[in-house]
Structures are given as C-alpha cells and as structure tokens.
Amino acid sequence: MTVKYADxxxxxxxxxxxxxxxxxxxxxxxxxxxxxxxxxxxxxxxGLAGHSDADLALHAVIDALLGALALPDIGxxxxxxxxxxxxxxxxxxxxxxxxxxxxxxxxxxxxxxDLTLITEAPRIAPLKEAMxxxxxxxxxxPADRISVKGKTNEGMGWIGTKEGMAALCVLSARI
Length: 175
Ligand code: MG
Fold this sequence. Notes:
The protein is an alpha+beta fold and 175 residues long. It has helices spanning 2-14, 56-68, 74-77, 90-104, 128-139, 157-160, and strands at residues 18-30, 35-37, 40-42, 47-48, 109-118, 146-151, 164-174. It has one domain: CATH 3.30.1330.50.
C-alpha cells in the first residue's frame, strides 16, 4: 500500500515536466540503395547502407525521443540482428518507438523537434518543406514546431569526401 502511494506521488511530481533528448546517427552511402530522409524518398542521389531503410534522419529523431524519456535506445529496441527490421521502413520504427513511449508516458506531448542533416549532397534546402511535412504527419506535431536544417562539412573528413552523412536531432517533450 505504501509503495503504491509512493508511486502515485512520484508520478504527480514528474507530470508536466519538460524533457529534452539528443539523437545522433550516421550512415555510409551505398549506390545500390534509395535515399530516404524523414520518410521522403529523394531521387537521383545514392542511398545509405543499413539494416533498415537507413533513414538516418528518423533514426536521430527516434533516439532524441527515447533519450528525452530515458528509455532504451534505438539499437536496443530494434536490434540490427533482428530480421524483422531488415529493409524496414523507418516510419514503422518511429511508429513503434512512439507507441513504446506513449505506453510508458500516457500524457506525452511533443513540444518541438530540431533536426540538422550534415552532408555534402543532396542539398537539403529544397527538400526541407517535404521533410517537415512528413515529420509533422508522423509525429502529429504542427509544422511550426519542426525545424530541418542542412549543413555541409566544408569538404572535411568522411562527410566531406561523401563517404557518408550524419544527422543530429534535439527534441523536447512534456510528460
Ligand atoms: Mg541508423
């Protein structure tokens, strides 16, 4: 009885609390795959290698969400050894991660998402609108609470030589 009361007290204390999570991902380019970013297929650009569809933008968003809630990370929820996720759309991964999060935090309310894609190609600016629209639908979050930015790495290192690309995401949520 005492333990249950303590649980209720703990929930009351954290309810409404604001959380922030950081997600990072990087993948190597693979010329025989399609490029999918934020669930949007980008034509005429090499895709990315990976177990799923390698949508690193969504992977960074998922890890930011899970990180904000101190839940197991994307690799623990969707192990690359699990054949279930082979070539899977990362939209499904995001859907599952959101469901997993909402089961544990039923009052979860996403506040904003800030995503940066670091790559020499493709240029992100012309793709931003479609990516924001896609994220807005998937996260059920108004587009004016979502930012997508593109940066090059000024030709430096493995991103500069177009070996791969990287994504960083910060997400805030109320629980
Ligand atoms: Mg990944």
